[in-house]
């Protein structure tokens, strides 16, 4: 974890921010390699450019081993802000991350009313956005398992399950593969459900000719997978086939644009321009993708307004879609890409050929 601390400290110096307080449990896990879920109690990692690393933590969360930081303990009848305040240096600014509850922040502001408080979440987010080799290997393995899970899930779309039952089946298959938890609630949507990007899984069942959107992901050793495939029950109409092939080609064009030196918006444009060219632009209603790692959605989206330059080490999704509610056709195809020095590596290897799942006799 030493390199991660160094990258954060280098970023602090770039931003002329000499001290920050990190309170997001995921960001703390990224830096110390230990998950601590404090609930309503305060957990705060204080860092400064002098090299101080202090974790203020409640005694209810005993730790074993060296976490690479000094531990400052408090109990339930003590004010943790008093302990944290002793570590604050006489610099004019303090970086605070965006998730810290206002009750703690206001107490700190009372202690130091003359300091300037700035949002330092972006600093950590930008460091986390560039994955190291260990993270990349874990993401590859997480997606490899996701390919296997998708292969086992697809035959179940013709077993007469409701969307909710199919979602539960996805979780059951993940557990069988040793996945810790789903990285988001599985989207298992038939027909009109899949044609509504905001659809919530319900008790609907699939019928002959339905498109079935399967958007699934799980956590492997803390790292998320995410993939979408769209399949069809029993048969596929000419219109649905046309839509599928357009979305698939848009996905491939987006992947081609995902390379160092291009902008994130270039990836969105590559997908969106092709879908618009084919006459379905108004039916592609969401951004093209999102960054991913310790969380399914991390900082750095793939959208028309994100002109950030793509860099090696980023991992993000490319997931164009077309949604025709009136015709009950919804299609989305999603892959994850690792940005390499000269292009990208797609880490979802499950086929994108159109699949029609035969009905059971």
From TrEMBL:
Creatinase N-terminal domain ranges (all copies): 4-130
GO MF, one annotated term: hydrolase activity
InterPro entries: Creatin/AminoP/Spt16_N, Creatinase/aminopeptidase-like, Creatinase_N, Pept_M24, Peptidase_M24B
Enzyme Commission numbers on file: 3.4.-.-
Keyword Hydrolase belongs to the record: yes
Sequence ranges assigned to domain Peptidase M24 in this UniProt record: 138-341
Transmembrane segments: none
Top EC class, one word: hydrolase
Name of this chain's protein: Peptidase M24 family protein
Lineage: Bacteria, Bacillati, Bacillota, Tissierellia, Tissierellales
């Amino acid at each position: 974890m030493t390199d991660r601390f160094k990258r954060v400290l280098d970023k602090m110096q770039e931003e002329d921010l000499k001290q920050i307080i990190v309170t997001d449990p995921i960001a703390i896990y990224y830096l110390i390699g230990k998950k601590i879920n404090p609930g309503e109690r305060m957990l705060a990692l204080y860092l400064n450019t002098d090299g101080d690393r202090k974790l203020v933590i409640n005694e209810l969360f005993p730790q074993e081993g060296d976490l690479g930081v000094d531990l400052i303990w408090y109990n339930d009848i003590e004010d943790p802000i008093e302990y944290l305040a002793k570590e604050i240096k006489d610099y004019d600014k303090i970086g605070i991350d965006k998730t810290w509850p206002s009750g703690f922040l206001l107490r700190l502001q009372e202690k130091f009313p003359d300091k300037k408080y700035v949002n330092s979440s972006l600093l950590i987010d930008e460091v986390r956005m560039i994955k190291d080799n260990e993270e990349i290997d874990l993401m590859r393995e997480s997606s490899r398992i996701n390919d296997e899970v998708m292969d086992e899930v697809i035959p179940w779309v013709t077993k007469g399950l409701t969307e909710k039952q199919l979602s539960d089946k996805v979780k059951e298959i993940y557990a069988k593969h040793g996945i810790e938890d789903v990285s988001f609630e599985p989207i298992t949507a038939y027909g009109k459900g899949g044609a509504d990007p905001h659809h919530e899984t319900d008790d609907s069942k699939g019928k002959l000719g339905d498109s079935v959107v399967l958007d699934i992901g799980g956590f492997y050793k803390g790292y998320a997978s995410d993939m979408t495939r769209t399949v069809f029950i029993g048969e596929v109409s000419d219109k649905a086939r046309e839509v599928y092939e357009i979305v698939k080609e848009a996905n491939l064009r987006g992947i081609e644009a995902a390379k160092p030196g291009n902008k994130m918006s270039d990836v969105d444009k590559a997908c969106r321009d092709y879908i618009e060219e084919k006459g379905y632009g108004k039916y592609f209603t969401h951004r093209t993708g999102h960054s991913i790692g310790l969380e399914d959605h991390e900082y750095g989206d793939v959208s028309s307004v994100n002109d950030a330059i793509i860099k090696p080490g980023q991992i993000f999704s490319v997931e164009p879609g077309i949604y025709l509610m009136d015709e009950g056709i919804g299609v989305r195809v999603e892959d994850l890409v690792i940005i390499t020095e000269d292009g990208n590596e797609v880490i979802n290897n499950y086929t994108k050929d159109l699949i029609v799942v035969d009905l059971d006799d």
